Amino acid sequence: MHVVVPFAADRPKTRLADTLDTDERREFADAMLRDVLAALDAVPRSLEVTVLSTGPVDGVDAAIEIDERPLTPAVNDRLGTAPTAVVMADLALATPDALTELFAAEADLAIAAGLGGGTNAFLARDSAFRVDYHGASYRDHLAIAREEGLSVREVDSRLLAVDIDEPADLAELLLHGDGAARDWLVDAGFELSVGGGRVEVVRE
Fold first, then answer.
1. Cys-Cys crosslink for 112: which of 14, 17, 31, 160, Cβ 3.0 to 4.6 Å?
2. Which residues of 10-22 are buried (b: 16+ CB within 10 A; e: fewer)?
3. Which of 198, 196, 195, 169 is nearest to 181 (CA)?
4. DSSP run (H or E) holding 95
5. Could you give the CA distance from residue 133 to residue 124 in angstroms, rounded to a whole number?
6. For 159-182, what is each residue's pLDDT tens digit?
7. pLDDT digits over 55-96, tens only?
8. Are residues 170 and 164 in contact, defined by beta-carbon separation less than 8 angstroms?
C-alpha cells in the first residue's frame, strides 16, 4: 500500500505564527512529521511511504517527492494507483493502532475527519476518488465518493482527528502526546497551566 504524507516545507504551520517564530515552526513541523512517520513505520503491514513536500526535507527515513503545487492537484496526481492512503504530517497524536484501524476498514474509501471539518487521513481503494482540499473538505470528500458510487467507511478516531494547527491544539499534544513533537514543545519551554477550570498552554 502506498501512503502519501503531505508536508508544507516552505510555509510550515503559519497559524502558529503568534506563538512560534519561523525557525521554531519549521523545527516543530519537522518533529510532527517524524512522529507521523514513526507511527506509520510501526503499522504491522507493508507500507510504501512517500513524503510529498513543497521543499527539501532533511533527517527523515522516507522517500521524498518535491511538488510545489497546491495540495489538491499534488495529491490528485498520486491517486491514480489504488490503494493509496494520505495521512497529514501534523497528526502528532496518531498511533499505529489508529492507523491500522483506518487501513483495515473495508470500503472503497476509509476516511477520518479532523475536528474542524478537514480531512486528516484516508485510504482510497478505488482510483475514481479524488480530493478537493478547501474549507470543510471532509463533507466535500464524502460527496465526491457518493458521486462516484464508492462505498465509504467513516473512521471515528480521536487520535486521527487532532491536527496541530492552532495554539489551542498544543494543549492536546502536551496532554496526550509522547513523541518528538511533545518533546520539542517541552524543550522549548511550553507547559500546561490549570486555573479557573481551564487548561491553557504557557511558555516559560
1. 160
2. eebbeebeebbee
3. 169
4. none
5. 15
6. 999 999 999 999 999 999 999 999
7. 999 989 899 999 999 999 999 999 999 999 999 999 999 999
8. yes
Identify the bridge partners of residue 2 per DSSP, sorted by sequence position: 48, 84
* Residue type, position 89, single letter: A
d(CA 120, CA 111): 8
Neighbours of 81 (CB within 10 A): 9
**pLDDT tens profile 1-13:** 999 999 999 999 9
Domains, the chain: 2-165 (3.90.550.10)
Indicate the residue type of 28: F
Q: pTM above 0.70?
A: yes
Side-chain-facing half-sphere of 10: CA atoms under 13 Å: 10
Asked if residue 92 lies in contact with residue 161, where contact means CB atoms within 8 angstroms, the answer is no
